[in-house]
Amino acid sequence: MCRLRLFAAAVLTAAAWGQAPSYTSSGIVNASDYSSGPFAPGSVIALFGSNLSRSAYALQASDIQFPYMPTELNYTQVIVDNSPVALFYVSPTQVNFMVPATDGVGQMTVQVVREGLAGPVITLPVISAAPALFTWGSNLALATHGDYSLVTTSAPAVAGEIIVLFATGMGKTAPNPGPGEIPTYAAPIVNLSTLQVTLAGKAVDPTLIKYAGLSPQSAGLYQINLEIPSGTPSNPSIQVSEAGQLSAAGLVLPVQ
Questions:
Q1: Is the pLDDT of residue 163 over 90?
Q2: Alpha carbon 213 to chain centroid distance?
Q3: What is the pTM of this model?
């Protein structure tokens, strides 16, 4: 009986891997905060579904042909507008990939291919900017002090300090990296004049935004170098808007 069960399990597993990747548009979200689209050039996206990869596999340094990210991990590819794109992580139920920074505004098609088996083609909207802050813990915005240590409730930012916030989906930059390129340079976002950071619902003086653009040595990652204004209340809510698009609510920046 035990052998029969093992045989049945093996047959079911083989049948599952004979199935094409399965997913829908509702399972495609920002990888930073899992908010829904639209998306922007340069966004890092998480796609959830089934039969997406043989097994879980995260990007390794050996997979990178510097300065370009791999477009296949563990026999899985993501095809955006008929071209394979940079991958960060694959598993049977999740794939993280990057929208090429060169993509135009309008629509893009997304398709997962695993070992020659193709999933459905999904059409998604693309806009010039869709800012999303990276998070950690339950609701904290990912930020570092000047010494690269995390801004935390036990090590909060203080007024007058310049911190670094991390985001995705801030759109094209000047210069703009090629598809899958890991930038080795700083490059401000082209929508800089529309960028606004709010703390506790109050817009920060634009002169306190010291830089907003690519984070060098990191594909798909943007950073905002922000001086904390005097008078900022403790642990304010934080949001970022750009080109009329607002990041998700509910995040807190540890400040004392």
A1: yes
A2: 14
A3: 0.88
